[in-house]
C-alpha cells in the first residue's frame, strides 16, 4: 500500500468528487478547482527545474494556494518546506541556506524580506498573485513515484532557543498521522470548520493531511491570519462547527464580545500546540457551548502523538496515543516510537542520535500515563524551575494565575538567584477593562500554593510575548527578567 501524499490527494478527489470545499475572503473554491490547479502547478514546478527530492519553500499567509501548492509539490515528488511568515532576515537566510531549497512560493507581502534573505542563493521564486500563474499554464502532470520513507516535508523548529533545526518527515509518517487525526475528527461528527492556524506550521500541515483522509465532504473556511473578531463573524456567517486552535487563541476569543454573535453551530475545538490551562478550557466550553478536545505532539512526531475524541476524553489529559504511535514514560520523560517519528534532523546526525535512542524519540516533556492509557503532560524539562532544591513546574503557577478573574495570559519562568539557585517569577496580561497589581497577584498565588512554588514577582505587561504560532515565548520572558 502506498503512503505517497500525492496519491492520497488524488484518491481524496476521486472519492469525494466535485463540491464547494474552501471559502476564502469572499470566494468559494471547489474541490475540482483545487485538484486541477494542483496538477498544473506540479507540471509547472517540473518545467522550472524542480526534481524529486528538491526542497520547495512555502512561505505565505494562509491562502488557497497553500492547499494547492502542498498537493503540487508532493505530486512532483518534491519536499514541502513550510516557513512561518514571521521570520527575521537572518533566521530566514539560515533556513534557506541550510535546506538547500531550489524553489520558493511566497506571498507578495513577503517579497522584500525574502529577496534580501535569498540574495545570491539562486532560488527560483514564485509570488502568489504574480508569476505563480506561470506555474499553471501547462498540461496537468502525473504523480512522481516516491517511497514510503522518502522525505515529504522539512520543517524548521526551535528558532526561539537557538538556530532553527530542520525536522525530516516522511510520506508514511505524515500519512499515518493524518489518518489518526481524521479518526479523532470523525468522532466529533463535524464537517464545517474554520482554519485560523498558520498552514505553514506542523499543526496546520497535519490538519490539511487529515482532511485528505476523510470519507466525508469537509468544508473549510480559511483565515489569512488569526483575527478574533473575524473568527466570530465567520463562525456565525457560515454556521461553522469546529476549529483547530492553540490556547492563546481561546484566550483572545474569550476577551471578545462573543455574546453578540450567533455561535450556536459550534460543537468542538481541537486544542494543540501548547498545554491548555484548565481555567481556559472551562471558560471556553461554557462560553461557546463546545467540547474542547486536547491533543499533544511536536514537529518531530509529525505534529501529533495523542488526542482526545468525543468518546474518549478525560479531565487534564491529552487523550490516548493515536493508533500508529507508541508512548512510554522513561525516567519521567515522554518518549515516542512509531512511523510518525521523524527520519532525523537535517544535516545533524549527532543531534539525531541524542534525540532518538534505541528507537525511542525523547521529547523533552515530562509526563505520565494512567492505567487506561491516557497521557498527561506535566511540563517541558527545559522549563522546569529548581528553587532551593524543589521542582517547580511553570504550568502549575500559570494555572493558578489564570484562576484570577483579571488575568488573561500568564507565563512563569525561572530567574537566576544566588540564594535559591532559581527564583520563580511570572508575567501576566490582563483581560480588557480589568485591573490588578503584581503585588496583588503574588498574594493571590501565595494563598493557593506551597511556599516554595508561588512566584515572588509578577509583572503586568500590555502583552505577554508569543511565538509566531501563538505559544508563550519563554525565552523572551526570561530575557525581560534578565534586563530588569
From TrEMBL:
Q: Which InterPro entries match?
A: AMP-bd_C, AMP-bd_C_sf, AMP-binding_CS, AMP-dep_synth/lig_dom, ANL_N_sf
Q: Where is the AMP-dependent synthetase/ligase domain?
A: 10-346
Q: Report the domain of life of the source organism.
A: Bacteria
Report the GO molecular function annotations: long-chain fatty acid-CoA ligase activity; medium-chain fatty acid-CoA ligase activity
AMP-binding enzyme C-terminal domain segment(s): 397-471
Give the enzyme's EC designation: 6.2.1.3
**What keywords would UniProt list here?**
Ligase
PROSITE patterns for this protein: AMP_BINDING (PS00455)
> What protein family is recorded?
Belongs to the ATP-dependent AMP-binding enzyme family.
- Protein name as it appears in the record: Long-chain acyl-CoA synthetase
Amino acid at each position: 500500500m502506498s503512503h505517497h501524499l500525492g496519491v492520497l490527494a488524488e484518491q481524496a478527489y476521486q472519492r469525494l468528487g466535485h463540491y464547494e470545499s474552501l471559502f476564502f475572503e469572499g470566494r468559494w473554491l471547489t474541490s475540482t478547482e483545487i485538484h486541477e490547479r494542483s496538477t498544473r502547478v506540479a507540471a509547472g514546478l517540473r518545467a522550472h527545474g524542480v526534481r524529486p527530492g528538491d526542497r520547495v519553500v512555502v512561505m505565505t499567509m494562509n491562502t488557497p494556494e497553500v492547499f494547492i501548492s502542498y498537493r503540487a509539490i508532493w505530486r512532483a515528488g518534491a519536499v514541502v518546506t513550510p516557513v512561518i511568515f514571521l521570520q527575521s532576515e537572518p533566521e530566514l537566510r539560515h533556513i534557506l541556506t541550510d535546506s538547500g531549497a531550489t524553489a520558493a512560493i511566497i506571498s507578495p507581502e513577503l517579497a522584500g524580506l525574502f529577496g534580501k534573505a535569498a540574495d545570491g542563493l539562486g532560488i527560483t521564486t514564485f509570488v502568489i498573485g504574480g508569476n505563480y500563474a506561470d506555474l499553471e499554464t501547462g498540461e496537468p502532470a502525473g504523480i512522481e513515484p516516491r517511497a514510503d520513507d522518502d522525505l515529504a516535508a522539512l520543517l524548521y523548529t526551535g528558532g526561539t532557543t537557538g538556530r532553527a533545526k530542520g525536522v525530516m518527515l516522511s510520506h508514511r509518517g505524515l500519512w499515518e498521522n493524518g489518518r489518526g487525526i481524521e479518526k479523532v475528527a470523525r468522532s466529533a461528527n463535524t464537517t464545517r470548520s474554520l482554519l485560523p492556524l498558520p498552514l505553514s506550521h506542523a499543526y496546520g500541515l497535519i490538519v490539511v493531511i487529515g482532511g485528505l483522509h476523510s470519507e466525508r465532504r469537509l468544508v473549510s473556511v480559511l483565515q489569512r491570519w488569526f483575527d478574533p473578531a473575524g473568527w466570530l463573524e465567520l463562525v456565525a456567517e457560515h454556521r461553522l462547527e469546529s476549529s483547530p486552535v492553540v490556547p492563546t487563541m481561546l484566550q483572545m476569543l474569550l476577551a471578545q464580545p462573543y455574546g453578540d454573535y450567533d455561535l450556536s453551530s459550534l460543537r468542538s475545538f481541537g486544542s494543540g500546540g501548547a498545554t491548555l490551562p484548565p481555567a481556559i478550557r472551562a471558560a471556553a466550553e461554557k462560553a461557546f457551548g463546545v467540547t474542547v478536545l486536547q491533543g499533544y505532539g511536536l514537529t518531530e512526531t509529525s505534529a501529533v502523538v495523542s488526542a482526545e475524541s468525543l468518546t474518549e476524553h478525560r479531565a487534564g489529559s491529552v487523550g490516548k496515543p493515536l493508533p500508529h504511535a507508541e508512548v512510554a514514560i522513561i525516567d519521567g520523560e515522554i518518549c515516542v516510537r512509531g512511523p510518525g517519528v521523524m527520519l532525523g534532523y537535517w544535516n545533524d546526525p549527532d543531534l539525531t542520535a541524542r534525540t532518538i535512542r534505541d528507537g525511542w524519540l525523547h521529547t523533552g516533556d515530562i509526563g505520565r500515563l494512567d492505567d487506561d492509557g491516557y497521557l498527561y503532560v506535566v511540563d517541558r524539562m527545559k522549563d522546569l524551575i529548581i528553587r532551593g532544591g524543589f521542582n517547580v513546574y511553570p504550568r502549575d503557577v500559570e494555572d493558578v494565575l489564570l484562576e484570577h478573574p483579571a488575568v488573561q495570559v500568564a507565563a512563569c519562568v525561572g530567574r537566576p538567584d544566588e540564594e535559591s539557585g532559581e527564583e520563580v517569577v511570572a508575567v501576566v496580561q490582563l483581560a480588557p477593562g480589568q485591573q490588578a497589581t503584581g503585588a496583588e497577584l503574588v498574594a493571590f498565588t501565595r494563598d493557593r500554593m506551597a511556599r516554595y512554588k508561588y512566584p515572588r514577582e509578577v509583572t503586568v505587561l500590555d502583552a505577554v510575548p508569543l511565538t509566531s504560532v501563538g505559544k508563550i515565548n519563554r525565552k523572551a520572558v526570561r530575557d525581560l527578567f534578565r534586563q530588569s
